[in-house]
Amino acid sequence: MISPKNIGIQIIFFSFLSILNGREKFYNDRIIIYIDNGVEDFQVFDDQLTTSNKVLNTKLALVKAKVIRKWLPKARPTDHDGDVFLNRYYVVEFHSAKKSIEKTIEEFLLLEPVRSAEIIPIVELAFQPNDEFWQALYGLRQVKADSAYGLYDIENGEIPGQMPSSEIVVAIPDASLMWDHPDLFDNIWRNLGEDADGDGTVLEYIDDEWVFDPDDINDIDDDGDGYIDNFVGYDINYDTNDPYPISPTNQYHGTMVAGCVSAVTNNQIGISSVGFSVKLMGLNCGDNQGYIPTGFEGILAAAHMGADIINCSWGMTSYIESNQAVINTVYNEYGCVIVGSAGNNGSNQAYYPASYDNVVSVTSTSQGSAFSCWANRHETVDIAAPGDDILCTNTIVNDDGELYEIVDGTSFSAPTVSGALALIKSIFPDADNDMLISNIIESASFFPDMDGDCEGEDLNGLLGSGQLNIYQAILLNITPELSVSNVTIPTEGGLFYPGDTTEVMITLSNAPGYVPVDNVIVSLSIDDPMITIINSEFVFDEIVASGSEFDAQFLFTSSESMSFGDIPFNLNLSAELSGNFPSSLSYETYELETEVLIPFGFNQDGYPIENLNIQGSPLFTDLYGNSFPQIYFGSDSMMYGTWISGFDAIGFPFEVESEISSSAAAGDLDGDEDKELVFGSLDGTLYALNKNGTEYLNYVQPDPIIGFPALNDLDNSGSLEIIFVAGNDTSATLYAINNAGDDVTGFPVTIPERIVTGPAVADIDGSGTADIVIVTLDSNVYAIDAYGSLKSGFPFLTSDGIQTPATLADLDGDQDLEIITGNEGGNVYVLHHDGSVMASFVTEHPIRGGVSIADLDRNGQMELLFSGLDQYVHAWDPIVDAEITGWPVNIGSGSISEPIVVDLDNDLDLEVITATIEGTIYISHHDGSSYQNFPYISQDSIHSTPAIGDLDNDGDYELIVGTAVNLKVLDILDIGGDQYSWKAYRGNSHRDGYYDVSLSYLAMDKNMIPTEFSLGNNYPNPFNPVTNITYGLPEDMRVMITVYDIKGRVVKTLVDSRQSAGHNSIFWNGTNDFGAPVSTGLYFYRIQSSNFSQTKKMIFLK
Questions:
Q1: Which residue from 6, 329, 643, 761 has the least number of CB within 10 angstroms?
Q2: Alpha-carbon distance 949 to 959, whole Å?
Q3: Cβ atoms of 511 and 12 closer than 8 Å
Q4: For the residues 1023-1042, what does the mean pLDDT come to?
Q5: Is 35 helix (H, G, I), strand (E, B) or coil?
Q6: Whole-number Å distance between alpha carbons of 792 and 836
Q7: Stated pTM of the model
Q8: Phi, psi of 558, rounded to the nearest 5 degrees
Q9: Among 851, 774, 840, CA closest to 809
């Protein structure tokens, strides 16, 4: 049983110049056209070169027509088929043959007066061999063997099955082989590897009979195939070197089969065969009882001896695993095609070896292409061939004194198919099994019994693909299928580094099941002044067989300032079809035009990771707390975790039962100093995983989880809660659960609107407890307190639906947080904590990715950074209601990513990273100018926000990008700064959308003196093991910063000294004044000076 070749649709640019693929001989110096019925009074003038139609005359001149004449000069005006009148057909002949007659036809079809244009086939008679019993061989005519013969110039010595320097061998592991049969002898395989005396033959005619050459018999395995003196095959059953029948009256079956494979054809005696002249290897596997006890040993021996096709006209009804192993080995390791007879039991049952995988199973038809009901039918049958009343060679003289016999059986159907496979193999010697088998199966002819029955038993689906048609099998799929399978750059990172001169190897593969090619010429070009191809053409003069590949080598150099990314080059390839073609078949040059992507830049070692579809934003974090960070991301139903060099994190990937629908968040849920990973799926399950990939908790509710979960100590319990949204087409639900998986009091909250993104969480009004902000596709902004109640002033109705999650930050310095979001109408809203409008901005195009925050110009006022479908990334100062100098930046296409912000080059100025939907990644300096070697030109769609972090702890940042096909990790190389900034989707690994403006001073010049006192929010908060507290002093003074517990007791004095004016910071590591670690809980920190005091809270987690 053979699984049909999977022929899919591959999107590739190519040109093949013979759409006829040699399936039929045709004239390439003439075509036939039909003049449209609407062209009145059309005529050809006497010169037979011009007509009454000017449009047609112009074309005739351009194509150098020699003559235009009526196709059927005797056709009457009344001769018609419907609206097709035979007298309106004309033949156009050209002075010379056209390189592409199909292209010429296409040109004529574009002409207004021409209704149709077609090729003109060359019609030839099929070849009839001169063999004595040809007329009795209905089966050969039924499988179109005579038409196949007609493809060859046999009369001038072109013989089907013969090859210039090699031969195709069909092995017959069966009951002996009378190799000196007069109608077989010339086609018997001679193993010249055993020609010990070197005289070019292993058979001698001595005393009126053919014998093994006595000078070659030496009891030595000369050719090292494991069989001694195997001149024409071997007797596997009796372990001797001669497969000749010991008892011709009992051991005749193999000889009968051999004649059906390749009886010598056109030799004026006996019978003909499909194989015509392919060679026969005899292997006796039978005993004197009519059994085949060593059939599978014979199959393996045939492979050892170099057979191409192995015919098995025998079998059993039992499946034996070890036998399948032999078949698989011979098929996969030795490249042999195995053919088996489907059996003669007249039943719907499997029959082995025919029904094994990797075997072509053949059942029987009779004269007139009817199914032989005595034959087996089964779903494992691949094809049918004549097996009724078959005239075969024989070991026993018949009543007419000849060595032939008429027999029935699938035993004689199978060898017809074996001979056909061998004949195709002789034409395409470098074709793989996929091509040989698919040509046979896919070209088979339908016959009515395929939809019929046998004595009431339905035959549909039990007779394979049809009856063998060797003529069509030769002409089927005469196309290569070359494509670029790999690009290799022999540098440390496998990329082309801008400014270098480097060799690039492009691997081109010919797909399994397609025609081999040779004389391949590959050229490469690019229209980019930054790149010079030093040698742009590569010639490969060896055969590229089916399923094989070769490397084309090119040398490039490039400018140091060229962009990173997957740069598209134009690849053009031409090749000749490789084969031992019959002289009547000719094929034009195969041509391929395609695009090849060559990577320029600096990929992190072990990346990209391919074959992924990443829709959520990757998370850069360290679940272990060991300074070796990891990357977490979802693709389909898998949550992946990787770290340096692309290695899987322990316990990952983690598979869930449904598609992962959210980006992941990370935080220490249980106070064990290790973070947990939190994400949701389409089936409504929220997962929290331990650092080793085991399940910490799962929470199940009915609707898909949306966007991302956020983590926050919502109830001031000293531990993080998980806040997330789930929704459907009509409504959504806001959930808050604790680390035990229980609902927080007041939750869940039903929102009777559609929501497509996650929540933001922070204390927006200084109440001492966190608030949750969600936005809806029905245009509203909601603020909900820690107890599940809607806050005063909300919901706030915007002008359009909202897909942009809220961002929370104190933009006006009033100690309350503003709410920032953008909507589908292109409006950005900045709301005060009470729902009143502080500022707004209009782009007139949808904003979807998210709004991030930075002080790019270091003036002490925050800019809001966002991109959208207007093809710009904006940096808007809502205080002055204007974009800062150098902004917006044109990014060429729409974006649904949130900009991330980081100091990539340690110059205290921040860079902004934005990804477009089309896959381009822009990095802009604070003034809007482009970062060196950016934009990065990826060819892969990006629907999420990148992440940034130092994956390998080498001091420079890696940019982490999830695309629709892979995870990229790009090494920036410049030593980066470590200042606080919006480095991740939603600002941090908690995904809470909160930005602590007080920490942004690190983006400013350290010499800038603040105009007033300030105490910043500690970061991170909650924290473990260290948090950073910032404060600003407008003048030199004595300052005390003290940590208190919830009872007001002093825990630790952090600062008690005179400080210089400016921005300052201090770290607290969770210890008291005695150096002992404090317990988990709520703490307060207070700054005091002579004329200023302020207190804020923080949460320490273990």
A1: 6
A2: 7
A3: no
A4: 86
A5: strand
A6: 11
A7: 0.68
A8: -145, 165
A9: 851
pLDDT of 14 over the 60 cut? no
Nearest partner of 1023 among 746, 675, 785, judged by Cα: 675
Instruction: State both tokens at 595.
Output: 């695009």
Task: Give the Cα separation of 1046 and 1039 in Å (integer).
Answer: 22
| Each residue's pLDDT tens digit, 327-374 | 999 999 999 999 999 999 999 999 999 999 999 999 999 999 999 999
| Number of Cβ within a 10 Å radius of residue 1038 | 12
Measured CA to CA in angstroms, residue 737 lies from 1, 510, 656, 767, 788 at distances of: 56, 56, 20, 21, 12
- Amino acid letter for position 148: A
Residue 382: closest CA among 367, 410, 361, 404: 361
Beta-ladder partners of 513? none
Per-residue buried b or exposed e for 989-1013, using 16+ beta carbons within 10 Å of the residue's own CB: bbbbbbbbbbbbbbbbeeeeebeeb
What is the per-residue burial (b if ≥16 Cβ within 10 Å, else e) of 559-590? Answer: eeebbbbbbebebbbbbbbbbbbbeebebbbb
The rounded distance, in Å, linking the Cα atoms of 613 and 766 is 41
User: Is there a contact between 202 and 213 (Cβ–Cβ < 8 Å)?
Assistant: yes
Bond preceding residue 795 cis, omega within 30 of 0: yes
Which DSSP string do the residues of 565-630 spell out, in sequence order?
Answer: EEEEEEEEEEEEEPS---TT---PPEEEEEEEEEEES-BPTT-PEES----SPPEEE-SS-SS--E
Q: Distance between the two ends of the chain, CA-based, in angstroms? A: 63
* C-alpha torsion 504→505→511→515, nearest 10: 110
C-alpha 244/C-alpha 1058 separation (Å) is 111
pLDDT tens digit sequence for 538-566: 999 999 998 999 999 999 898 888 888 88
For residue 313, give the 3-state DSSP assignment.
Answer: coil
What confidence tens digit (pLDDT) does each residue in 782-817 have? Answer: 999 999 999 999 999 999 999 999 999 999 888 899
Q: The sheet that has 676-680: what strands, in order across it?
A: 665-667, 676-680, 685-689, 695-700
Containing 475, the helix (H) or strand (E) segment is helix 470-475
Residue with structure tokens 């005060």? 832
**Which tops the pLDDT comparison, 691 or 938?**
691
Q: Where are the alpha helices (DSSP H) in 235-384?
A: 253-262, 295-304, 321-333
Q: Which two tokens stand for residue 778?
A: 């029905």
Q: What is the helix (H) or strand (E) element at residue 58, kind and residue range? A: helix 54-62
Side-chain-side CA neighbours of 842 within 13 Å: the count stands at 5
d(CA 1100, CA 998): 20
Q: Are 612 and 942 in contact (CB under 8 A)?
A: no
And the tokens for 800?
Answer: 């359009």
**Residue entry with tokens 């004197």:** 288
Other CB atoms within 10 Å distance of the CB of residue 481: 22
CB 566 within 8 A of CB 608: no
Please state, as a whole number, how many other Cβ atoms lie within 10 Å of the Cβ of residue 616. Answer: 24
CB 120 within 8 A of CB 63: no
The two three-digit tokens of residue 249, written as one number = 């009256």
Closest Cα to residue 479, out of 889, 142, 108, 22?
22
Map residue 1090 onto helix, strand or coil: coil
